[in-house]
Amino acid sequence: MRVLLVEPDYRKFSEKARKRAQHTKAGLQKKPEDEVLWYPPLGLMKLATFHKVHGDEIKFVSGCDKSLTKEHDLFSLGSLWDRVYISTLFTFEWKRTIETINFYKDAVGGSIHKIYVGGIMASLMPKEIFEETGIQPIVGVLSSSKQIDLEGNENIDMLAPDYEILDSFLYGINDTYYAYTTRGCRRSCKYCGVPEIEPSYVDYIDIKRMISELRSKYGDKPKLKLMDNNVLASPRLEEIVEDLVTLGYGRGQFTNTKPRRQRVIDFNQGLDARYIDKRTMSLLSKLNLKPMRVAFDHVKDKKTYVHALQVARKYGVKEFSNYMLYNWKDTPRDLYERLVINIRLNEKWGKGRHKPSAAIYSYPMRYAPIKSRYPDESNRNRDYIPTATERKFDFVNSAVWTKRFIRNVEIMKGAAFGAISPTPTLALRTIGETLEEFIINLYMPEELLRNRNKHERKVYEHEPERPPGTGKVEAFRTFILRLFNEQPEEAAKFHDAVTANTTISILEYYNKCTNREVKEWLKLYMKK
Amino acid sequence: MVKALHEKVNKIHYRVPSIGYQMLDVITSGMYDDPLMVYREYIQNSVDSIDIAVRQGKLSPSEGHISILVSGESRSICIEDNGAGLPGSLASKVLLDLGCSPKDRTNQRGFRGIGRLGGFGYCELLRFETRCSRTEEVSIIEWDRKLLEDLTRKVEGNRNLSEVVKSITRTFTREPSVRDADHFFRVTMEGVRRFHSDKLMNIRTIRHYLSQVAPVPYDKRNFSYAEKLDKYFRNISGYRSYEITLNGERILRPYSDNIEISTNVDDIIKDIEFFEFLGTDENPLALGWYAKTGFKASFPAHVAMRGIRVRQGNIEVGDERFLSPFFTEGRFATWNIGEIQVWNHNIKPNARRDGFEHSLEYERFLEQAGLLGRRLSTLCRRASSDRSLQLRVKKKLDETKHFLNRLSFSIDEEHHRSLISRLEQDLDSLLPLYINRAGFEGLLLDYRKVKSRLIRLKETPHLFEKHLDGRLLRHVGKKELVQKMLKVVCSEYDKTLSAYGLIQKMLEPFLRPDAKNITKGRH
Predict the structure, then answer these.
(1) Alpha-carbon gap: A117 to the closest alpha carbon of chain B (Å)
(2) Minimal CB count within 10 Å: which of A345, B2, B188, B189?
(3) Which of A112, A127, A147, A196 is the mutation pick for testing B, counting most B CBs within 10 A?
(4) Residue A224 forms beta bridges with which residues?
């Protein structure tokens, strides 16, 4: 049987990544860390193992590969594929994914029941995919070969992924193995897709055999990324930890390679703060967690969250990478408060003063809907903002998420590779030293926010040496405060124009606006 | 001898002919060449049933509704209407008998009693559920494809059709559930078989097909002739539109003012023209319309409105190429957009609904279709020849303009005369073809402008001798002059691109200072 495995080409920077891969291959640059490379499509890798065992010919491709339909002569045996598997990921990649599915209909000669679509988006939007493509996707985990119309009852999800099918210069598979020790989650948070993707909670998966197999096949890799969605909810946590220690992921354990390398574990999807206590930490502390990820999704959970972090630190965790959901039911004020809580903890733990006992990296994560619940809410594109119920222009205290605000949070993150720094002074500089400053940063023209070193006069403590900037950042703060305090009507118009974050909205306002100072600033918004 | 034969003939024993179960294949999968026609058959039954409900006062005309639900997850198709339904006493008879529909042949669209088995060839189980009043139970009739296949495998020889039907069907009743309306008819195809592109379950394909075939309303938002057409057809009995939804979304006819041919080519419906097919008694057999478009080319298949569609009871008969034999060239069938609604009851669709039964009225219909085809062919051809003539005229005008722009001198009077008369002749050669032709007004205007430029030039020739410097020439001997010219020809011939370029080079030494570039631009 000839089997084609397809991952839609949805990575925004894929061209850049491909170029980098070429350079690395040519020895022009060092191979980057797995963290920087792409996540491997585990489902397709498991299917590769499954089909290889059955003696099938397999090929992995990314995106719509036209060479596949051209490379063979008409009617030659190899011109059609017996099966095509297509993985899916984010719902906002709808268009590209659908294009990919439709593209590969030709690869099976139009017999579309030979195409299998699965994965996250497929599990969240099966009906929509069926209506659009005529293909009924496989929902949830692929736990039986029956789901793909094959005999037997083999649990494909339990197979060791095939790491050979991928290009190691593109995918993060050089030092890392990926696995699950549990499936699903016991909670059902409204914003989360897990209850649909992995509806039943599996509290224990034995990965010992799989990891041994992987090591004998692909060598002893130091990192293990566990994709569990809520491992701490498992009553069998002890067994899981024991397994991991047996596998050599305990504190102070090393690979059997030369030179030896320290083995580390990353629970990639984060740990649930509500389960972090002395019992769970005494178990987790046996493992070499790096980093430990604790979600901080609601400001109302601050007590639980802070307590969890303090317990974890006591048990010797040194590095935290904490995700913070925003743009869900929160406000900019909530996010600021959560960010400041992390800054204060970092301060307390000595970050920035002496060798800190632990450090927290904050990762604000923008919410995008999983399902479209009403007509104007679409899960098929990325630019979701919650509908504001009322308009208020007390702009500091009642700010709600807008397109520009979200964009500016992403820019702030972007300045430090997606995270807000653990060094308190730098973190406060990035987000703003007060809530008011934070909100002003959310309004700030991209030109200023992106190039703060160039435009900010003040030089902060712990900043790398630089000459003072033009002072435009400070001037913008003065301007916007005056505008909102003294000219509320103009401020309202200004707010509507700039928060929509489109050139048209700004241009329209620019043409109508009579205030010369405002017009000057608008020019900066339009600067590309 | 003759007598003996007679005796023999008389002795042949008459027996009732048996009809074998293979007939089932003929009326299920054998009937239709496109599985989508199954939808048309069920919708046809549903609209008949809705009409009955309206006549019985159970529904107002606007309340009729047909819902189609296609589920990829359960591999099922369900088509349900809120029409009159069937009473329990009749249900099993109507739904098990073959080819004996109780429907009358004038008012109703279906009447043969076989269409409802259309889905049987494509699924594991075909189920009919119905009731006709609140007081009744729901009657259920199931046809089991698997049983039929088992039977075909096991049974040798030919079995009687009725026996086979009996062994592969099941009839029973059940209490109504919340899902069951007071009166309804529901067809469910369970375990729909996967085949190739899975057309029968492809939502886009079904929508594309039903928008063309089913008796659904025009899209008033995008088609500005919708109301006009509804008004025009309203006297035709059976001309009614119904609310049909596919997985919750309304299906509308595909007509719109704008026609998107490809991403960068569009056409529009500028107007529509009505026509009538008259019977021998001067009463209309059918009413129709066609769209006045640019008649640019055949519309591609994705333009669902292409073709002159023939409809009976507002359901399509055949497809977009139905009238293609009547066009002077078959390809013109898809150059056109329009519809014909059959009015006369004696024009009846055949069982496959890809044509009509032969009748005097249908013969007359075909005769008139021939006239229509010819007229529309003429429009297409004329549009096509107009377009190519326009291109030719435009090319000719451009060439003349180009020549005039670059012309700066004539060699002598004679050369000037011959040049101008050649240009004039050339320019006028196509004029008789378009001088009185509609659509050429702009080009004619352009022609007049060019022509007047030509006439002006005719009267004021630019002669070459004006540019020559007599003093320079005076000192050159005739022989030397010829030599000089010949030398330039020899050395420059390969370098220059045109005769004028060469002339420029030859004349350069003898031109007046103010006329150094008389042929500039001719290189």
Answers:
(1) 13
(2) B2
(3) A112
(4) A177, A265
**Residue among B73, B198, B247 minimizing CB distance to A112:** B198
Give the single-character DSSP code of B349. Answer: B
Chain B contacts of A140, Cβ < 8 Å? Answer: none
B73 vs A127: CB contact, 8 Å cut-off? yes
Residue in B73, B75, B202 closest to A134 by CB: B202
CB contacts < 8 A (A, B): 36
CB-CB contact of B205 with A134 (8 Å): yes
Q: For residue A40, give every residue at least 6 positions away whose Cβ sits within 8 Å of its Cβ, in sequence order, or none.
A: A161, A163, A166, A171, A172, A173, A178
- The model carries a pTM of 0.82
Per-residue tens of pLDDT for chain A, all 528 residues = 999 999 999 776 677 888 888 888 888 888 888 988 899 999 999 999 999 999 999 999 999 988 876 655 656 666 789 999 999 999 999 999 999 999 999 889 889 999 999 999 999 999 999 999 999 999 999 999 999 999 999 999 999 999 999 999 999 999 999 999 999 999 999 889 999 899 999 999 999 999 999 999 999 999 999 999 999 999 999 999 999 999 999 999 999 988 999 999 999 999 999 999 999 999 999 999 999 999 999 999 999 999 999 999 999 999 999 999 999 889 999 999 999 999 999 999 987 677 788 999 999 999 988 877 655 567 887 777 777 666 665 777 888 999 999 999 999 998 767 789 899 999 999 999 999 999 999 999 999 999 999 999 988 888 888 889 999 999 999 999 999 999 988 998 999 999 988 889 999 999 999 999 999 999 999 886
Nearest CA in chain B to A129: B72
Q: Which residues in A lie closer than 8 A to residue B201 (C-beta atoms)? A: 134
Q: Are the C-beta atoms of residues A84 and A115 closer than 8 Å to each other?
A: yes
By a Cβ cutoff of 8 Å, what residues of chain A touch chain B? 105, 110-113, 126-127, 130-132, 134-136
Q: Which residues of A touch B194 (CB under 8 A)?
A: 113
Pairing mode of beta strands B307-312, B284-292? unpaired
- A135: closest CA of chain B, how far (Å): 7
Q: Do A134 and B196 touch (CB under 8 A)?
A: no
Q: Which of A105, A111, A136 sits opposite B72 (nearest CB)?
A: A136
- The phi, psi pair for B435, rounded to 5°, reads -60, -35
Distance CA A157, CA A161 (A): 9
* Chain-chain contact of B203 with A136 (C-beta, under 8 angstroms): no
Q: Which residues contact B449 (CB under 8 A, 6 or more apart)?
A: none
Mutate to test the interface with B, among A108, A113, A114 (most CBs of B within 10 A): A113
Task: Look at residues B92, B306, B69 and name the one whose alpha carbon lies nearest to residue B188.
Answer: B69
DSSP symbol at A323: E
Q: Please provide the distance, in angstroms rounded to a whole number, between the alpha carbons at the two ends of chain B.
A: 103
Helix (H) or strand (E) holding B27: helix B23-27
pLDDT in tens, B473-488: 888 888 988 998 899 9
How far A102 CA lies from chain B's nearest CA (Å)? 11
This model of the complex carries an ipTM of 0.78
- A97, A8 in Cβ contact below 8 A? yes
Q: Burial, A12: exposed, middle or buried (Cβ in 10 Å; 0-12, 13-18, 19+)?
A: exposed
A139 to chain B: closest CA residue: B73
Q: Hey, what's the torsion of the CAs at A487, A488, A489, A495, to 10 degrees?
A: 110
